[in-house]
Structures are given as C-alpha cells and as structure tokens.
Amino acid sequence: MFCVGDIMHKNPVTIGPFESVGRAAVLMNELKIGGLPVVEDGKLAGIITSRDVRYCHPNRLVADAMSREVVAVSPECSFWEAKEMMESHGIERLVVVENGRLVGIITKSRLYAEIGKHVDALTGLNRAEFLQHKAAELLQSGQEITVIFLDLDNFGAIDKEFGHVIGDEILQQVGKILKSITTEGLDYLCRYAGDEFAVVTVRLLEEAKQLSWQMIKALADASWPQGIKVTASAGVAGGRRSRVRGEPNGTHNVRDLINLASLASTKAKREKRPVVVAGWVELEEVG
C-alpha cells in the first residue's frame, strides 16, 4: 500500500506559539510555503497559514492567529485517504503525526503528483493499486464487497492484426463504456493491467453479477474501429469481513478475493461463458 509516510516532507520547518506572526510571515515568504505547523514542547499545537497572517498584526503572537483544529494523518494513511481528507476539509496540506509528535507534512501538489502516477494515462482510469485500497477501505467500514474482473477476448490477436494504435483506441473506448455503466459511490473501476479491467463494488453478489452481464453486453453491442468485434469474459467474487479468526475453511485477504475473480474470468474465457461467479469468501480483518 502506498502511504503518506513514503512521500511526506520530513522534518518540516515549524514555529512556536509564542513567536510573532511577523516571524511566521517572514519564514513562509523565505521558504515559499503556505503554512507552518506550530509546535510546543515537541507536540503539535496548531497550524498557521499565509491566510492567517494576512489578517493579523505582525506583532501578535502566533498562538492568537493559528488554527488549533488541525487535520492530521498518520504516516500509514494511504494516498487516497489523504486526498479525500484534503478535499472534504478544503485544505492544501496535511500534517503527519505519530504518537502525538509531528513527523512530516504533505502538500496537495505533492500528493496529487504521486496519485497521478497511479492513474492509467491511456484510459484515465485508476490502476490496480486503487482497487486494492478501495476494497480494503470498504471492508474496514463494514461493507460487503464484490469484485468483477473483466478480460477482453483475443485482444492479443487484435493488436497483431490491426496494430497497437487501433488496440489503444479500443482500450480507451472500453474504459469509457465501462465507466458509463458503473455508478459513482457504488462501483470503483480501474484498468487492472493490459486488456484487463476490474471493479470493486458494494453491490451484493447477485446485483454485481447483473452488472457484469451489462458490461459484457455493452461491449458486444458497441461499434468498434474497422468493424472489429470486441467481446470479454468476466469473473465475479464477493467477500465479507470475517468476524471470527481461524474458521474451519480459513480466511482470505483482499488480494485473494481479486485473484478469485481473476481466475473466474479465466475460467469463463476457457469455457466460452460470458460470466463465471466464484461465490463468497470470508476475508481477514483489515486495518
């Protein structure tokens, strides 16, 4: 899992609560940064931003101008969790705290640049890492989840016969079609790898199965470059967080669930069946 601790600015410049607002402003100007964590006795006491100093006399104390309600995360916080926190609070930076002590700071620009590396440039969809993160997050929130793994049929032959440019056009169109079918807040789509796409959804197994059929049909019914016929095979597997460890049949993790759906799609392709359902598994406690 990709965590904030991997990319945060370590040992950030800080200021004390009893220093002046003018001193904070000078530091921010010199360092070309928009905010300073305020630390007292080694512990995070607040944060002061360029907006705070703009409306406060420079002789006032930092303690009078800073915000004491600091949105903080741990170094283990994932990129996507950090992004959601920044967006929900409308802030440009997060302080990173471990055992009550400031250990780093992560800015919006730095975070978005890293997240951009996990977005597929061809389709604009998230990559596989996002699927694993989202599946774990949904399980932690107590929701049952289902994974749909979708693999295009004979895509290698299409690439060889029509070339990679046409192949890329097809992958882009597949991404758009699948995105148009999925529902924000219910389904989380990614390009898993090559000609493989996957969705983690909070729909129950039967409803997710219907969604996979819709996807298969939409691809089969679409018009494709040069009259190419594009079909796909899908595997579906559902999971719920196990409440009891050491169950007779053992438990699985998120990676196992994704793998089950992947193997089901391979079986579907081998048996020339559009959709194969692997069923439910119990998943290990996460987090």
TrEMBL record:
SUPFAM superfamilies: CBS-domain pair (SSF54631), Nucleotide cyclase (SSF55073)
Protein name: GGDEF domain-containing protein
Domain GGDEF stretches: 143-281
UniProt KW Zinc keyword: no
One Pfam assignment: GGDEF
PANTHER family: DIGUANYLATE CYCLASE DGCM-RELATED, REGULATORY COMPONENTS OF SENSORY TRANSDUCTION SYSTEM
InterPro entries named among the record's database cross-references: CBS_dom, CBS_dom_sf, Diguanylate_Cyclase, GGDEF_dom, Nucleotide_cyclase, Rev_trsase/Diguanyl_cyclase
UniProt-recorded Gene Ontology molecular function terms: diguanylate cyclase activity
Alphabetical keyword list: CBS domain
Species the sequence originates in: Desulfofundulus salinus
Residues of the CBS domain: 8-65, 66-122
CDD domains the record matches: CBS_pair_GGDEF_assoc (cd04599), GGDEF (cd01949)
